[in-house]
Amino acid sequence: MLAKRQNNGNGNNGNGGGQQQTSSQTGTASQQSQTATQTGTQTQSNSTSITNAMPTIPQSAPAGLLTVTQPPQQSTSYFKIAPSQYITFGWNFSYIIATPTHLTVSAVCENGNTYPVGPTNGIIPGTATSVVWDPYSYQTANPNLPLAQAEYNLRIWGDQGPDAPRAPGYLTPNSGLTFALYTPQPYTPISSGWQCAGCSGALSQYISHPAFAGIVATLLVMFLSGSALLRRL
After folding, report:
1. Full pLDDT tens readout for the chain, 233 residues
2. Can you give the pTM of this predicted structure?
């Protein structure tokens, strides 16, 4: 009888252990399911936020445009590289639906060099409609890549890069403005020997030229011949 009671006790302990293990597994599975549900809900929420942040652009929408308004594009503007000589470039936007986060403004010289435009190394906010450039300060701070006296092409683009294709609602890169930079020459006094080629001081150079003597002789012959004809009349 004692042995039988011990066996029954052991059996009850075994069933109890099995019930505890089953309960533990059920709790773990429930916790994993809850975690998966929370993760899925969070992922769905983040995806919804990203979708809501991006504008909906119909395919029929025109491509975004940037039009330079200052200086005028009809002719080439000339700017000198000198202290306190600032250049203002201005523009406006049309058909922009996806506003760029930033704009890049660069001046591409006809010699192939590219220079950043503006005080922030050519990077400005995407909603900016103008930038002020101090070429003299840039020249002073960058002696290894000086600005040349030449024509430049102003280029402005958004997040999609300088070669982005036309796309509905997105900014199309602009490169329609041409301007020129020059360095003013220092003043040279006349006492230093400077001469003007069109002034009286250089007249002796023309008189000594053989062509000048030939022209004077021809005019003199024509004058005398005309006078003789008038006398006969």
Report:
1. 344 444 444 444 444 444 444 444 444 444 554 544 454 445 454 444 444 456 789 999 999 999 999 999 889 999 999 999 999 999 999 999 999 999 999 999 999 999 999 999 999 999 999 999 999 999 999 999 999 999 999 999 999 999 999 999 999 999 999 999 999 887 777 777 766 666 655 556 556 667 777 788 888 888 877 776 667 76
2. 0.61
Contact 157, 174 (CB under 8 A): yes
Angle at 202 between CA 197 and CA 206, to 5 degrees: 95
CA-based R_g, the chain, Å: 42
Residues 6+ apart with CB under 8 A from 138: 115, 116, 147
Tokens of residue 152, six digits: 């430049």
Q: In the chain, which residue ranges form alpha helices assigned H by DSSP?
A: 2-53, 135-141, 203-207, 210-232
Q: In what order do the strands lie in the sheet with 87-94?
A: 65-70, 87-94, 130-133
Burial 109-137 (b: 16+ CB within 10 A, else e): beeeeebbbbeeebebeeeeeebebbbbe
